[in-house]
Amino acid sequence: ESVVEVEEPKVKAGRSSRFEFANIKRIFIPAETNEPEIEIEEEYDEIEDLAPIGMRFGAGLFDMIIGVALSMAILSPFALSSSDWADLSGLLILVGTSALVLFSYLTLSVGLYGRSIGMRLFSLEIVDAEKNVYPTIKQAAINSAIYLVSAIFGGAGFLTVLFNDENRAAHDLVSGTIVVREF
User: How confident is the model at residue 42 (pLDDT cuts 50, 70, 90)?
Assistant: First the structure.
């Protein structure tokens, strides 16, 4: 290690409290560098407010349960008055009624409030992907229709969630919306 000697500060005549610093030499420690610090930009693979897939699934399942329960309540007078309710035609009537009820429920709740009851329970909401506002009724209707078609075909439209960075399903991509955590 090299040590550099430091000269003692000299006191000027007439000023006993001030020192002359021009002749003071600096001691350099080998660990010191004069290089500027480089800021490293961190890349974030995930957008913080995107809705996790599990939360989206939970909200969707809850909304499906609500839709089927409402459909059963609507159809209960017919089910009680008919004896042939537990066959294929009864199941198709239930599925058709559930689809209509779910379409109406999802379109109105998303178009007016930006979320359904299931989404509210999981603190999620749907916004326009470009404008960051609640979707229009038209966007909500497109979203709801493709959501139901995807559900009928075994969730095929939900596979796009696995292949894009924003976790957007087919109904989100077509309607121009994105599901995020509630602000």
Answer: very low
25 HSE (CA, 13 A, CB side)? 8
Q: Are strands 177-181 and 10-11 parallel, antiparallel or unpaired?
A: unpaired
CA distances from 174 to 49, 98, 111 (A): 21, 23, 16
Question: Closest by alpha carbon to 53, among 162, 173, 153, 170?
Answer: 162
Which residues on adjacent β-strands are paired with residue 178? 127
pLDDT digits (tens, 9 = 90+) for 53-63: 889 999 999 99
In this structure, the strands spanning 177-181 and 19-20 are: unpaired
Task: Name the DSSP letter for residue 127.
Answer: E
**Helix 88-113 crosses helix 53-81 at what angle (to 10 degrees)?**
130
pLDDT tens digit sequence for 70-121? 999 998 888 777 767 777 888 888 899 999 999 999 999 999 999 999 999 9
pTM for this prediction? 0.69
CA atoms of 39 and 93, how far apart (whole Å)? 63
Residues forming a β-bridge with 50: 180
Q: Are strands 19-20 and 124-128 parallel, antiparallel or unpaired?
A: unpaired
